[in-house]
Amino acid sequence: xxxxxxxxxxxxxxxxxxxxxxxxxxxxxxxxxxxxxxxQKQYDDYQQIANRIEEIYPKYNNDEPHKxxxxxxxMTWYGIEMKTLTDKSNxxxxxxxxxxxxxxxIEGRKVLNxxxxxxxxxxxxxxxxxxxxxxxxxxxxxx
Length: 143
Known about the structure:
By secondary structure, this protein is mainly alpha-helical. The protein has a single domain (2-140), classed as Up-down Bundle (Ferritin), CATH 1.20.1260. It has five helices and no strands.
């Protein structure tokens, strides 16, 4: 069970950092102040989840929780740059972010449904999934 907790925390920690990276990559392209506020709130939510994981991680492992690698970061940045080269509209940015958020929801639900994990870890992952499901609903308004 300890290994499953570590794997679950690592997966969600990477997902939170991917979300923060994606938001950082698009934030300078956003001209709409309301959308900027939405994205900043989402960034803060990801940061809170990552911080919580970093707080409890030492209970399960002496290492640091996994983050996104440089190659994954670069590919995310490049993908966003290419897809917003000709279209920096709110709709395009919302679409791109929703694609990533949906991947996070899927991964989070898989962990919740298929792993035997401690309640403390389950609560963090549930908060992560719920936050992302809320994000999808908010971002839909910008499509």
